[in-house]
Amino acid sequence: MWYDFDWKKEEVKQQEVRGQEIIYMDETYNDHAWNEKYEIAKQYYLKHGNLLIPQKYEINGIKIGLWISTQRQNYKKGKLSSERLEKLKLINFFKEENNTIKLDNSWLEKYELAKQYYLKYGDLLIPQNYVINGIRLGAWINNQRNLYKAGKLSKERIEMLEHIGMVWTTYKKNRYDEIESLKQLRETLITTYKNNQKNKRI
């Protein structure tokens, strides 16, 4: 039986496979590239005291969050050399407990929602009853402010929130309150103007 075989597609497929192998070899065996990312992770750890980095987090164009995630996966699969294991231990790479990681992931999930809100509206003046994807984002933002005032928010989280426009002290609880206040002010000004006009006529 004759089978129609597309040699061109097969050649492209083989090129893609070879490309993936090159990327894998670079990540796995290129000590210079690995050590470069390790030093960035080390500086992050020395500054923040942990390696609970968002997966999309970048430093100087390097996807250090993705690199950290890859090292955790390689550790679980037994793909990390003893030398690299020792280096990672020096920055407490394996210290985080499951509950801590779970809690941090929950915080990062809400942070990403807050970031999207900021990109859309330009601030974090979120109504306290605001809910998105089943998450009470407004209440969460308010809780971050309370933790900040109580001195219970880490330096890392403070910097992350300020990066997306967090204001720690607000005179208005939320955007709706501010709009309502402006409406009342407008109505007051209109009423005052009308009364002045009537008095002039008298």
What do these coordinates show?
The chain is mostly helical and 202 residues long. It folds into 2 domains: 90 residues, no CATH class; 92 residues, no CATH class. Helices cover 67% and strands 0% of the residues. It contains 8 helices and no strands. The longest helix has 27 residues. The N and C termini lie far apart (106 Å). About 4% of the residues have low confidence.
What is the secondary structure topology, with strand pairs?
Elements: H1 7-29, H2 31-48, H3 64-76, H4 82-90, H5 98-121, H6 137-149, H7 155-163, H8 175-201
Which features does this protein show?
202 residues; mainly alpha; 2 domains; rod-shaped
Brief summary:
By secondary structure, the protein is mainly alpha-helical. It has helices spanning 7-29, 31-48, 64-76, 82-90, 98-121, 137-149, 155-163, 175-201.
CA(first)-CA(last) distance:
106 Å
Q: In this structure, how is the largest beta sheet organized?
A: none
Order of helices and strands: HHHHHHHH
The count of DSSP E runs of length 2 or more, i.e. the number of strands, is 0
Assembly form of the protein: single chain
> Runs with pLDDT <50, length 5+?
19-26
Number of helices: 8
The radius of gyration is 27 Å
* Helix percentage: 55-70%
Rough outline = rod-shaped
| Beta content | under 5%
Total domains? 2
Mean pLDDT across residues: 76
Class from helix and strand fractions: mainly alpha
